[in-house]
Amino acid sequence: MRAQHLSASYGVELQQCREELVAQEKKLRSAASSHEEIVLWFEHDLFCQVHLLYLLNWFAKENLVDTKLSLICINEFPGKENFRGLGELSAGELSSLFPARREVTAEQLTLATAAWRAYCSDDPTAIENILLTNTAALPFLDAALRAHLRRFPSTANGLGHAENRALQFLAEDNQDFARLFDHFSRAESIYGFGDAQLWLVLRQLCDGPAPLVSVENFESDSWRLQPLTPELTQKARFRITAAGEATLAYEADSVILNGIDEWLGGVHLHDPESLWRWDESTSRLQYSSGPAVNEFGY
Questions:
Q1: pTM of structure
Q2: Which residues pair with 221 in a beta bridge?
């Protein structure tokens, strides 16, 4: 029954996503044909950089002869020691950035088009090839794409970097979501995760035959189906399980324990026997092909 509820929930979310994307396309086309200037506002993190690539790739295909395309993209702001993003700036502070906008260049459009194609490819080594080229035209792209590659399951324990970090913070007794989110955001600002994205990471860690994380204060799995609200995050308490501790200690492998079904860009990670993994020791992707054997006793 729970699987049916989850499937129905995901179906509704997918339909809503499609409708929002169609509406977004209409707004983009309208903007490209009815404005003298379009100003893109973005930050340095992976979340922003991927969206920037999408938009620059989109505009590169449009006829913008009568429309100027400009960009504001920052990773710091005077007086903000722990700058996390444009959302924390006041109206006056945002206005101060406007004169510094720069017109998007042909070089930036070309690089963004190539990088977006690599991001959407089912072969993630296309991203590694982009990183071998000169990406200076988009100064935050290199770090963002490297952060993306670290999201692939580790050769050491099957978890991506974000999941490993979430487990580390849970092991330090940060089971309160608000505190966990604050720790994660400070340590891993490169990802640009909002609370909903970290919540999804934790929800996925709670799944599978050998969950790596457990959630308390709920009598059933109903919390998985509820919209994310402040009340929900305040009630939930997450704890690392024995399987999670073993995985964090590299004594178990998450993919072998619980399987995997995840999209990273254009790569669908779903077959434990044929899987792209990230090798932290070499900072390179590896493709593993062969039967996955649970040798850890879980």
A1: 0.89
A2: none
Strands 274-279 and 284-289: antiparallel
- Percentages helix, strand, coil for the chain (3-state, rounded to 5) are 50, 15, 35
| 95 CA to centre of own chain | 28
CA-nearest of 164, 166, 117, 178 to 145 is: 117
- Segments in the chain forming alpha helices (H): 2-34, 46-60, 91-97, 106-120, 125-131, 141-149, 161-171, 177-187, 195-205, 230-235, 242-248, 254-258
pLDDT tens by residue, 172-203: 987 889 999 999 999 999 999 999 999 999 99
Percent of the chain whose predicted confidence (pLDDT) is above 90: 70
Domain coordinates in residue numbering, the chain: 32-149, 161-289
Q: Are 40 and 69 in contact (CB under 8 A)?
A: yes
Residue 87: exposure state from Cβ atoms within 10 A (0-12, 13-18, ≥19): exposed
Do 42 and 52 touch, CB atoms closer than 8 A?
yes
* Predicted confidence (pLDDT) at residue 2 exceeds the cutoff of 50: no
Q: Which of 242, 237, 240 is nearest to 213 (CA)?
A: 240
d(CA 295, CA 298): 8
SS3 212: coil
Which uninterrupted H or E stretch holds 278? Answer: strand 274-279
What's the average model confidence in pLDDT over 8-31?
80
Three-point CA angle 246, 194, 256, nearest 5°: 25
